[in-house]
Amino acid sequence: MPKVLLAVGAGTLLAALAAAGVFADDGGPPAAPAVRTTGIGTDINLREVSVERAEQALKNAGLAVPDGWRPVHTRRERHDERPVAVVRYEPGTTRTLGGEHLTVVIDDEDTLLGYTRLTAEAADRPRPQADQAERAAFEWLRGFAAEHAAGLDVQWVDRHDEEIRDRAGRRRVVTGTKVKTRHSNGLYTWIIVGERETVLAYERDVRWDGEAGRRGTAMWLHDRWIAAREGTGPQPDAPYALAGR
Question: What is the pLDDT of residues 97-117, one digit of tens each?
Fold first, then answer.
């Protein structure tokens, strides 16, 4: 795919797209979708966000974007106090909350903090047993973040469901086995393992707000929370984090 550099300013973004050859020379329709950038925090030292960085983080973790999927949205946000880039891929050309997507969250050191891959193809499939999921989760994590994996203790392992809508608008349920762990630093990490030991989702360095009885860290992988954050949906119940800015 062409190298597309995503910048905060709209003018910079358009210039980058043109330089990368995304727009046709005759001024016709683009060969790839324009990628919208949102969610700029005023206290963040802004810098360019690159799809290439997200894809390198995926490669380092042995993950990949499905064939034919494209980046449709990127945002500059925070994971607690850490500036992060959030890059979302979909099979279509525009962002559709609640639909199929692959989303990546990386910090400024290119640490993979979050990943989810929810596809219709993965729906209604069997999930691994607890011992198989735990083994697969730690083998995967040690492959690219061994130091982090060494600090984790397993809290529990259980079924986890995520609901999406496919491109025909039909409700689909993606089921996996969630391995929830706590790091020695007090923060939480979990990995959701699907059929054939594929990684469906991963989050690390997640803070629990004990006083509020819900998650404290932002939820950039979760569409219901994003809708609430953007004012297009209701605040989800606990344990979802509060979505207000």
Answer: 999 999 999 999 999 999 999
* pTM recorded for the entire structure: 0.82
Q: How far is CA 190 from CA 20, 164, 178, 235, in A?
A: 37, 20, 7, 23
DSSP characters for the chain?
----EE-SSHHHHHHHHHHTT-S-TTS---SS---EEE---TTS----EEHHHHHHHHHHTT--PPTT-EEEEEEEEEETTEEEEEEEEESSSS--TTBSEEEEEEETT--EEEEEEE-GGGTT-----HHHHHHHHHHHHHTT-HHHHHTEEEEEEEEEEEEEE-TTS-EEEEEEEEEEEEETTS-EEEEEE-GGG-EEEEEEEEPEETTTTEE-S--TT-HHHHHHHHTSSPPPPTTSPP---
Residue whose token pair is 């391995």: 179
8-54: pLDDT as tens digits: 333 333 333 333 333 233 333 333 344 555 543 433 333 344 799 99
The torsion of the CA quartet 150, 190, 49, 94, rounded to 10 degrees, works out to: 160
Residues 6+ apart with CB under 8 A from 66: 89, 91, 102, 117, 119
What ranges do the domains of the chain cover? 1-118
**Calpha distance 87→71 (Å, rounded):** 7
